[in-house]
User: What shape does this take?
Amino acid sequence: MINITLPDNSVRQYPVGVTGVEIAKSISEGLARNVLSIQVNDEIWDATRSISMDAKIRLLTWSDLEGKATMWHSSAHLMAEAIEMLYPGAKFGIGPDIENGFYYDIDFGNHAISSDDFPKIEKKILELAKEKQNFLRKNVTKSDAIGYFTAKGDEYKIELLAGLDDGQITFYESGKFTDLCRGPHIPDTSFIKAVKLLSIAGAYWRGDEKRKQLTRIYGITFPKQKDLDEFLVFLEEAKKRDHRKLGKELELFAFSQKVGLGLPLWLPRGAALRERLEMFLKKVQKKAGYEQVMCPHIGNVELYKTSGHYQKYGESSFRPITTPVEGEEFFLKPMNCPHHCEIYKVKPRSYRDLPVRLAEFGTVYRYEQSGELHGLTRVRGFTQDDAHIFCTPEQVKDEFKGVMDIVMLIFKALNFKDFIVQISLRDPENNEKYIGSDENWEKAERAIMEVAEERGLNTVIELGEAAFYGPKMDFMVKDALGRKWQLGTIQVDYNLPERFDLEYIGSDNQKHRPVMIHRAPFGSMERFVAVLLEHTAGNFPLWLTPDQAIVLPISEKYQEYAKKVLNLLNNSEIRARIDDRNEKAGKKIRDAELMKVPFMLVVGEREEHDGTVSVRKHGQGDLGPQKIEDFINLVREEMKNELGEIN
Ligand SMILES: [Zn+2]
Ligand SMILES: [Zn+2]
Assistant: This one.
């Protein structure tokens, strides 16, 4: 008999060779019907695999992320089986599960394939799923494995095999399909009740642009049709909120092939919006004792050799630029930190000067493969709302508090209510991996955790996820559709102060190293605006939105009055414009709704006579006629509520 420890720490005895499904059955029939895989100590296994030693286990179902992953990876196999039947000779690369579903990279040979083929493949997948095919795990020798795929003519699998050691190779067989795979898999294919193939894309084999482009098919499966229906509604909503689409419709930003891939162009409305975000943060930072600095977009390669960024970006990013006469080498700035270190060093610093907080909206450039670029979230040039705090080890806690206050103000003003804080600490077993003294690490780690606790934040602690140069805190927000986005970061750094030989004179008259804290509450302006667009669907808070109001004269006769209204609004610093096109009022209202203008002010004879505007609020409808001054006050009040103390 073996001892099996369940998640509630109760221990049960089972015969040697018991499987997850059998353990589930001993608990309840219902659980047994739903178990997709099992966590055995630290590994995820097939629920049908024999367990022959004492173990701590967790039975995984659709409500567990790992359970979903097992289902989706199994679905990738099933899709491959369907494709092999429909397109003989297809060869397979890799087919992992991903955050929402799975994909498989496939070489279709001479078959031309498009999303038009999806219904046919989906039908086949469901047909095979009903056959209740088991996933059979088999240990194979490397030479047998190579033999199998050589006979099949799948060079991709043979290449993958080259990287594996004999003794660690397993095949999974389901129906007529055999795959090189580590597993785990679901007990049988009948768990898959609904399938949707989502998209098709080109993907270079092993991510290498010099190698063959395979066809990547993305899909998702569910244990119930109802789950798929709900997912499709979510997908529709996500499509409507796609920041690339909204950015174009709302005339915020654009891309031009001629300017270059991954280099966003901010249009007037977008640039003004971004400027409002910057002004907001500058105001907050000024209050918090930050000083603005400015740096050029390039720096001498020696700067980045000192900082260590040359080793990181020198080979894999943009090539250095050389001057024509002196042959000096410059690098596009990948990070602002080295420049700020040099600013710190401009004069001797005493403990009385600390903390020094240097802030800059600094634009940086990093190479991304063209296939990886995506709207404003993956770009080659972006502006960080960067700042570096240089302080004593004792000041770390207060500085963290200060940065967190800023992050909270931002989340409030932009209506991010749901977020978690991820704290990345050292791996306690591997202290020698990290630079900086134990004492300072402990101090900083304790400070970060205390601050999170004092603020009552929803916190996840990740041991071993800290960078070698310091612990950090990341903010993940959940948007209106429940999707998680990583935004701001606060990072402690013991490395750059060493590399740049930064010092301050302490109260003991001795030289000391300051601690450096990197922080960017928005992350980058590009990414932040993208997330904001997807979160709000373009319905920005009033203080931020491009046009706060639009004046809609119902005919040409009321143009003069409309202009008068506009003047009053503009004089009160309300952003507004007139739609003076020769269109019907209904059409003007519909267009203003599409541009997500919060207030539409309809003016005609009665309004002119009474000195009023008829107010319509976006998404809410008619608020009735109001005196212009009353409307101005309404806007001011609403902005005050949004911005709180920052106003
Ligand atoms: Zn597999
Ligand atoms: Zn930095």
Residues 65-86 form the longest helix (22 residues). The longest strand covers residues 194-204. Residues 335-337, 386, 388, 518 surround zinc ion (ligand 2) (CB under 6 Å). Residues 151 and 625 are 80 Å apart (CA to CA).
